[in-house]
Fold:
Amino acid sequence: MSKLEKALEMAQQARGEDSPASETTKETTPVTPAPQKTQAEDTPKVKTACAARPGHIEPVYTQTRVTPADKAVLEKHGILTTDCPEIIIEQYNLLRVKIETAMKENDARSIMVCSPGPKEGKTITAINLAISIARETSRTVLLVDADMRKPAIHKYMGIEAEAGLFEHLTKGTPLNELLINPGIPRLTILTAGTPSDYPADLLGSPAMHDFVTDIKNRYPERLVIFDSPPLNLFSDGLYLARYADTALMVVRSCKSKEEELDKAMEEISHTNLLGIALNRVPARYCPSYDYRGY
Ligand SMILES: Nc1ncnc2c1ncn2[C@@H]1O[C@H](COP(=O)(O)OP(=O)(O)OP(=O)(O)O)[C@@H](O)[C@H]1O
Ligand SMILES: [Mg+2]
Structure:
């Protein structure tokens, strides 16, 4: 049985089970989570549709900070823009429809994007999946940078962000002061905030539990995507796997090793793994690559 077949079989088995700003300012001591205040997340007021487009959601960002992402930075980092080649947009559309279908079948509201090792494409995939889903008009997306060791979402989008998840979990900073709309309708981002050397303490804290419960349940049409650190290097991802309804494993084509993938799959074997995204596949292997006229 090939690695992929084995992975898919494990994913299918798992689906049947219960699922449960400045890089220089690193923490040098373990942090103790602050007691959480009751917080009203002040995310966009959501207008539902005009009669002509039932289900259409047009957020009005009254208090969420709107900080348009820098298009040149997006393009430099391979983030989806309207000018992306069709072949790339289409790959993320395929991922979107597969993920959305699987999440619907599993009645899931959240997904963690993970990988066995570093640099496999978790962050790029999480951002592009979020943008792709937000482009639909029937859902909103909250993208959370839960890689508190090496936050990258704000960098890849060219957004200044000094405070984020770390400040929410440790100081109780309200979400409405932290959420950012990057100029893309229906997408909000919670950056990681101050990088931490001890994120597992935070990710396993009651504050994290309360945070995830809140964001998953506040808006029924909202999907939450977590970016995460490498599963085989740190325990952080295992804490996240407790909270995320589902997971997507990203592996880098021609680079990730089978035993590393096996280990990562084993680590999150109790999580509802929806599938594996093979990243950095040369374009010539894409089915539509040679399809002239498209
Ligand atoms: N499909 C892709 N095509 C081209 N480059 C890519 C692709 N996916 C990722 N990269 C590049 O690979 C590098 C690592 O990507 P990314 O940061 O998304 O990986 P990661 O798994 O989140 O890494 P880390 O473990 O450090 O958080 C980046 O420079 C990114 O631009
Ligand atoms: Mg990353």
User: Anything to note?
Assistant: The chain has one domain: 64-285. The CA atoms of residues 5 and 69 lie 38 Å apart.
